[in-house]
Backbone:
């Protein structure tokens, strides 16, 4: 009996050894693979790369396209975690490739990374109407813009488009919210409200948030347009929502500012002003800044809605504030543009135009850009308010400028959308639509999107497609990649326990 037990134990031991050898061989022979902490992002995005199935204790070079960005050393199991690389500032919108390659051979793995310079809400997340990642359009090629496509709605489009993940979202006075293919203008879906949609959409975490003159704020599935929830205010809504930290902030003509849970629509707080709120909120550093028909600009605690300060302009504040470098900029119906201390509301400077300022300022490189109903666009020194230049259009400018890569884009009541040199105000390009351009342009992925009161949404891009043709990179041949021998070995980036990348 003991012999049988011994033989059985020997068989079990040999089986165990065989399994271990198979596992070891499997690890040794497993094809390398890598994972990325994110699949898409703008130029300069930080990407953490992890790898498996490499040889143990070997150097691995990590490339973005053909540029060697990092050198790591695998552990005893042929693995590495959270090696840091960065998408170059020059990476054009489109698909690019991350490659991890053993230094002494061409054994490695590749994953695609999609570069996008999306514009997710009226102010963008920087609250300055600035796209800092635009690297296709510039002062040297904006004169070559041409019409890519247009899409006709039934009534005027005063809403400013949002562009996210290859889709354009925009409202129309025909009571509808539209989703269009950003490349072709092809119709994807629409959602019908019970009132005109002047509000500009905000898109976050796969949800489109937008107000309607029927008094409701709507949350729609970004892929399908299906209603997720709606919240009824007491009056029409022309304010464009801002989304930050899981909260949607928006104003209503019922004199209130609302903070709603972005996932459920539950009200977190509201603040009552002395007039209708058509201004759109800017959210920065835990503060909500918003204008009111009572002539005040308000600064509210973003978590509680408690008033921090207010500044009286003396007339209706339709303009939506911009926030940059500790200052808040906003226009007023009393013809002025104001710069206030963002923490205290103290007046720093004001500049007087020839008519009410409904346009919302854009801020870039120390300059404030804004339109006025006196038919002009202005560039003001952000620190002092001194006039740098002005550009005369043929009619009112209530469109809000967008700034990207040295170019200012703005619409006018003279039927045109303009591209101006941000430094000099020189005209680079213009396009004539069928009537007023009250919509505010959006610049994303080398394309300018804007609506017109003629009922169309327009998309303009480089006329000959040269920039688009250069955008996406080809999948690199691993045999042609050359390591940068000056790179020092990178240490993996530590991540909090249980964190999801």
Residues:
């Amino acid at each position: 009996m003991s012999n049988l037990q011994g033989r059985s134990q020997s068989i079990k031991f040999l089986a165990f050894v065989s399994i271990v050898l198979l596992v070891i061989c499997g690890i040794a022979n497993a094809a390398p693979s890598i994972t990325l902490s994110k699949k898409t992002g703008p130029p300069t995005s930080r990407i953490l790369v992890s790898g498996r199935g490499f040889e143990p204790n070997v150097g691995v070079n990590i490339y973005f396209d053909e540029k060697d960005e990092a050198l790591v050393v695998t552990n005893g199991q042929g693995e590495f975690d959270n090696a840091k690389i960065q998408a170059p500032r020059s990476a054009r919108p489109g698909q690019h490739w991350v490659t991890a390659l053993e230094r002494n051979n061409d054994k490695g793995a590749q994953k695609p990374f999609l570069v996008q310079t999306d514009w997710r809400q009226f102010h963008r997340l920087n609250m300055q109407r600035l796209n800092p990642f635009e690297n296709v359009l510039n002062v040297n090629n904006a004169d070559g813009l041409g019409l890519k496509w247009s899409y006709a709605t039934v009534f005027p489009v005063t809403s400013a488009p949002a562009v996210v993940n290859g889709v354009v979202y925009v409202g129309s006075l025909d009571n509808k919210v539209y989703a269009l293919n950003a490349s072709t203008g092809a119709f994807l879906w629409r959602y019908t409200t019970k009132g005109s949609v002047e509000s500009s959409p905000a898109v976050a975490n796969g949800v489109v948030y937008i107000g309607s003159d029927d008094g409701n704020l709507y949350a729609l599935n970004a892929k399908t347009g299906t209603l997720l929830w709606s919240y009824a205010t007491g009056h029409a809504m022309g304010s464009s929502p801002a989304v930050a930290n899981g909260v949607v902030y928006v104003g209503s003509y019922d004199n209130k500012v609302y903070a709603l849970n972005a996932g459920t629509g539950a009200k977190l707080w509201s603040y009552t002003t002395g007039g209708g709120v058509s201004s759109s909120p800017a959210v920065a550093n835990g503060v909500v800044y918003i204008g009111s028909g009572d002539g005040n600009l308000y600064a509210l605690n973003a978590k509680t809605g408690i008033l921090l300060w207010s500044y009286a302009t003396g007339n209706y504040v339709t303009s939506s504030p911009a926030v940059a470098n500790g200052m808040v900029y906003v226009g007023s119906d009393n013809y002025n543009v104001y710069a206030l201390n963002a923490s205290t509301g103290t007046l720093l400077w004001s500049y007087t135009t020839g008519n009410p300022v409904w346009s919302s300022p854009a801020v870039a490189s120390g300059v404030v850009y804004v339109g006025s109903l006196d038919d002009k666009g202005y560039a003001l020194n952000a620190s002092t308010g001194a006039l740098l230049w002005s550009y005369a259009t043929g009619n009112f400018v209530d469109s809000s400028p967008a700034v990207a890569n040295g170019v200012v884009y703005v619409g006018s009541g003279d039927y045109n959308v303009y591209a101006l040199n941000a430094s000099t105000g020189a005209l680079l390009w213009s396009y004539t639509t069928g009537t007023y351009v009250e919509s505010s342009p959006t610049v994303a992925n080398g394309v300018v999107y804007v609506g017109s009161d003629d009922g169309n949404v327009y998309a303009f891009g480089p006329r000959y497609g040269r920039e688009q043709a250069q955008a996406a990179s080809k999948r690199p041949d691993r045999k042609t990649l050359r390591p940068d021998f000056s790179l020092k070995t990178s240490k993996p980036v530590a991540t909090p326990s249980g964190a999801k990348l």
Notes: The longest helix spans residues 2-29. The longest strand covers residues 94-102. The radius of gyration is 27 Å.
